[in-house]
Amino acid sequence: MLINEGFRTIEAEDGEQAVTMFTAERPDIVFMDVMMSGIDGFEATRRIKEIAGLTFVPVIFLTALTEEQSLMRCIQAGGDDFLSKPFSFMVLKARILAMERVRDLQRIIAAKQQTLSALLEEEHEEQALAERVLSRAVMNRNVAMDRLERMQRPASVFNGDLVLTQHLPDGGLRLLVGDFTGHGLAAAIGALPVADAFHAMTRKGVNDARVLAEINHKLYQILPTDRFLAASLISISGDGEELRWWNGGMPSIWMRRADGLHELASHALPLGILPELPACESPRRVRLQHGDRLLLTTDGLLEAMNAEGEMFVNSGFAEILQTWAFNAPLLPALVKALDIHSAGVEQSDDICVVKSPWIPALHHSHFGSRIHSGNGWY
């Protein structure tokens, strides 16, 4: 019947031969009997589907079985349709035409998928190049980055979290850790004007309040109304005796001192929301003590989810923070706890952690120094 309709056919005597002939001939449609010597039609179909891979090759079972469970086994084995014997030629031809239509649609979809994959790969490469250019433009002016303990994990190609450092004219150092709204390119686009203002004004010795005001002014002008920069600004005097800090919408900064942990909580609005910063939200001052250390994070760390939907701030972070001993490492334990907590869960936001070690007695070089112990750098 099929030959008379112009189809070229090949026949196999059993399931094993069917698999062998399929591998060699790669037919467009397979008609499979259930009851055969050697391997049955179910197993032969499973093997054929495995060989075909992503290519859609319809398998139609020809069977005398009528039980619903047996017919279900045909589909579960990889069959795409079945014909119960006896059947007419018109029914057989209708099944063939239907499967050819499905096959052709699958090939069209596969071709479009291949084109889309190529376009996505090209876009990813372009984004990676743009990210490298942007990161270098933003980060290349930073100082003492190799002396800071930090961990940055972007949720996509572009990083919406920002870390900037620059020396002050008196030998001190200024640090900004920021978190733009969202993540990806839309979040990272404001990093360049922030970096320009930060570095230029810090090198000139402009005070913290004016630096913040200038960054706020720039962001207010260029960012949409639903975008802003949460940020923490830290300035350490050249004599290592004073810390000036400002926290606008960021998670609390944690200071580890000999007498315990001290919280430097957010006290100001993020940058870019208002045309001018309120005077009451000016930077604050703390007298430094020997061995003081700071921990700064973005909310991506605290809000990282585990498989149960629980945030890291409620499952692991507090314990790590409370066990942070004076003059002891922190980042390795923190990163390990985060990895365990978020195992198997896709990262939804950029993550940034910065730990700043310094000893005020070292004067001009205090911030750029790290102390080495048997447990590593801290």
TrEMBL record:
Alphabetical GO biological process terms: phosphorelay signal transduction system
PROSITE patterns: RESPONSE_REGULATORY
GO MF assignments: phosphatase activity
Chain positions with 4-aspartylphosphate modification: D33
Entry-linked InterPro entries: Bact_Sigma-Reg, CheY-like_superfamily, PPM-type-like_dom_sf, PPM-type_phosphatase-like_dom, Sig_transdc_resp-reg_receiver
Ranges for domain Response regulatory: 1-100
Superkingdom, taxonomy of origin: Bacteria
Keyword Hydrolase carried by entry: yes
Gene3D superfamilies the record matches: 3.40.50.2300, PPM-type phosphatase domain (3.60.40.10)
Keywords: Hydrolase, Phosphoprotein
Keyword Endoplasmic reticulum among record annotations: no
A matching Pfam family: SpoIIE
Protein name (database record): Response regulatory domain-containing protein
